[in-house]
Amino acid sequence: MSSIASLIKLQEVDTQLQEIRELLGDLPVKVDELSQKEKSFVEEITQAKTRIKEIDLDMSKKDHNAKAIQTKIQKLKDQLFLVKTNKQYDALSQEIDYLKEELDSIETGELEISFEKDTLAEKTEAHENNLESLTSDLHERKSNLELLIEESSEKKKNLENIRQSIIADISDAIVSKYNRVLSARNGVAVVEVLDASCSGCGSMVPPQKKAEVKKGNSIYSCDVCSRFLYWPTQKKD
Ligand SMILES: [Zn+2]
Predict the structure, then answer these.
(1) Are strands 220-221 and 228-230 parallel, antiparallel or unpaired?
(2) CATH code assigned at 14
(3) Which of 115, 124, 154, 225 has its CA at a distance of 20 to 30 angstroms from the CA of residue 188?
(4) pLDDT tens digits for 5-25?
(5) Cβ partners under 8 Å of residue 177, min gap 6
(6) Does one domain contain both 98 and 19?
């Protein structure tokens, strides 16, 4: 038996289901976005720390080489006082110059990687600060979401059961029309006639139809928006 009373009840249930969906809103999407961001921060921090370790290792190697070269240079300089010929002196001087160039290039390399290290350390510190607030934000949203899902899931299940039992009382043709209108009309498929107008779209309901709607013997819908119409007093049954 299809009656307008069943459609009114169906609409009430669907409105409540819609409210539950809106309550969750974009929270699941936000939680997902924050989780992705958290993951990428953690990855970047890990990579930066690995690179910093490599730099430290490289730096101590470079330091070690530089010291060895400095020692060599000092030794050669000492030998300069002992040489007997110009040729020997020139040869030693050349070797010293060559070693000085090598030392220069090591020191330049050290400057470069120490700059890289400072930049990485700064970036990592900023990331770690961001991560802290991100993580606490994320956890708050996650626990909100879990709470909402928990609270609403039982309510949702009940409403869906009620929906099924209401639908069982309505003819398939009306149910499918109802579903079509519901999705086309923003979740509102059943509306009352108010001041001789459809309260869904505001268009006039002709007097004859208004009288039929008021009687409630059959199901009528608005000619303009297709929403099912009922008389205000039919809501309380
Ligand atoms: Zn209408």
Answers:
(1) antiparallel
(2) 1.10.287.1490
(3) 154
(4) 999 999 999 999 999 888 877
(5) 221, 226
(6) yes
